[in-house]
Amino acid sequence: MPKRVLIIDDEVVILEVLQGCLEELGDMEVLLANCGLDGLKVAQLESPDGILLDVSMPSMDGLEVLRQLQLDPNTRSIPVILLTAKVQPEDRSRFAMSSAIGVILKPFDPLTLAAQVATLFGWVE
Prior knowledge:
By secondary structure, the protein is α/β, with parallel strands linked by helices. The protein has a single domain (4-121), classed as Rossmann fold (3-Layer(aba) Sandwich). It is built from 5 helices and 5 strands. Strand 1 (4-8), helix 1 and strand 2 form a beta-alpha-beta unit. Helix 1 (12-26) packs across helix 5 and helix 2 (36-46) packs parallel to helix 3 (62-71).
């Protein structure tokens, strides 16, 4: 049974690229949400195996979404990988202090993304 990944990102093109990479190259089932609030709802309803979460989103940024996921007993155990273009030292320290299991930098390599995601989530056999 394929692993189920929820992608939360406000950029439609990024959602489409990520979905294509994970489904075609990683044999994963992909769920999509284009904002933090929708992402929280999908995470509660669908209980994905992992979440790819954009850091920079309007109204509710990724770190706030992550905080909300951690507060909910139904979603706190879902591993989260942050997606970001932010690479400043202060950003890296904020990410390191979060409960995320890893960070993938944008722009990412579409050909290696599925393997990178599987490795970070610990799904590599």
